[in-house]
Amino acid sequence: MKVVLVGVGQAGGKVATALAEFDAEMGFDAVRGALAVNTAEADLRSLPIDTLLIGQSRVNGHGVGGDNELAASLMDEDATEVLDALSGRITAEAEAIFVVAGLGGGTGSGGAPVLVRELRRVHDVPVYALGVLPSREEGALYQVNAGRSLKTVVREADATLLVDNDAWRAADDSVGSGYDRINRKLARRVGLVLAAGEATGEDGRDVPESVVDTSEVIQTLRAGGIAAVGYASATAAPEAEENISAVMSTTRKAVMTGLSLPEATEADAALLVAAGEPDRIPRKGVERARRWLEEETGSAAVRGGDFPLSSDRIAAIVLLGGVERSARVETFLERAREAARETDELEQERSDPAAAFDNEDLDGLF
Ligand code: GDP
Question: Which portions of the sequence form the region Disordered (predicted)?
Fold first, then answer.
């Protein structure tokens, strides 16, 4: 799938960069353009991709702090500028646009849903969001911002691919110090999904029928709502027949422990991509894994295909569409609602200091 990436905010810019770099390293050429947009000048400075500063007249390059409502209004005001900057990059060959953002911050959280809406107004290709959910260890403001942003972006985008910042964090990573590692993992997983349909036949020969096509990625995301991606790999034996159980176990691992949104396994649609040397990928194994995926996701629309790659490993990449009814999404939304209530209470306490004692089992002195 030939895509144009727009990173909004700090996380958006870094993740878009990581995706563009992975795509270039692998020589896939699925990423046809990448732009980082921010209200904070400092966050754009170190990025190697093209950048655009917005909201300058109002925040003077200093960012919005955690104010995602301000970010939404700045994006609204400067939308034409962003669309103009993108128009040269979104050429006729682009098959989708991805707006990338951390949903818990300010600029990305507020700016991404507005930009998605504007891009959909002027472009015919699907506009997807790639959103990062805050770790459960992050504070209430991040949870509330992410909840509000998610609600809006899911409504506006053709689909929202979610990555939970707790999903791929190593046990010893702290929030923050682990970002580069998370971003690399994210880039590999999402980057493989983007590139899956870009495989061409060796030496210009026809692409075998078993190779996954971009339209299958788009069909899987057509369910709209929230999508998740899973990944796992294993060493491949030289003969396809010997890899049947490896395909099965990597598929299972991709879904059970490798999902970007853990436990979000109830899906409307799914795509299983088996990546590796074509003559090492067992048809029987892929079929079996696909049937397992049907049962596990409860979806009748499970597509499958190969992604020919020269590697001594075999990988399962699973894309799930329409996972919004999953328990994990509900858990996050409950966390966001709870944080919103807490923040409201805190604000009330601030305006009325006595209210802090309302629920206490303490009697006043008089
Ligand atoms: P903004 O610049 O105002 O949009 O704010 P950020 O992009 O810093 O958004 C903050 C949210 O994104 C928090 O929930 C962080 O955990 C997350 N975040 C910040 N930087 C990164 C990053 O490089 N990678 C990932 N995966 N998440 C990040």
Answer: 340-366
Q: Give the integer Cα–Cα distance in Å for 283 and 8.
A: 41
- Mean pLDDT of the residues in the chain: 92
ipTM for the predicted complex? 0.99
Q: Which of 118-127, 300-309, 320-329, 350-359 has the lowest mean pLDDT?
A: 350-359
From the CB of 105, is ligand 1 less than 6 Å away? Answer: yes
Q: CATH 3.30.1330.20 spans which residues of the chain? A: 225-321
pLDDT higher than threshold 90 for residue 306: yes
Q: What is the distance, to the nearest Å, from the Cα of residue 281 to the centroid of all Cα atoms in its chain?
A: 27
Output the residue whose Cα is nearest ligand 1's atom 12.
Answer: 102
- Give all strands (DSSP E) within 140-290, no chain letters: 159-164, 226-235, 269-276
Q: To test ligand 1's pocket by mutation, which of 165, 175, 185, 186 has the most ligand atoms within 8 angstroms of CB?
A: 165
CATH 3.40.50.150 applies to domain 3-196: no
Would you say residue 3 has pLDDT above 70? yes
Phi, psi of 259 (to 5 degrees): -75, 145
- Return residue ranges of the chain for CATH 3.40.50.1440: 3-196
CATH number of 225-321: 3.30.1330.20
The residue type at 244: I
Q: Does pTM surpass 0.80?
A: yes
As given in the structure block, the two tokens for residue 164 are: 């939970």
Distance CA 338, CA 138 (A): 14
Mutate to test the pocket of ligand 1, among 179, 180, 183, 189 (most ligand atoms within 8 A of CB): 179
What tokens were used for 322? 């329409």
Closest CA to 323 of 272, 253, 264, 260: 264
pLDDT class for 208, splitting at 50, 70, 90? Answer: confident
Closest listed residue to residue 125, CA positions, set 32, 201, 209: 32
Residue 356 DSSP symbol:
G
Alpha helices in 36-67 (DSSP H): 41-45, 56-59
Average pLDDT on 205-216 reads 82
- In tens, the pLDDT along 246-274 reads 999 999 999 999 999 999 999 999 999 99
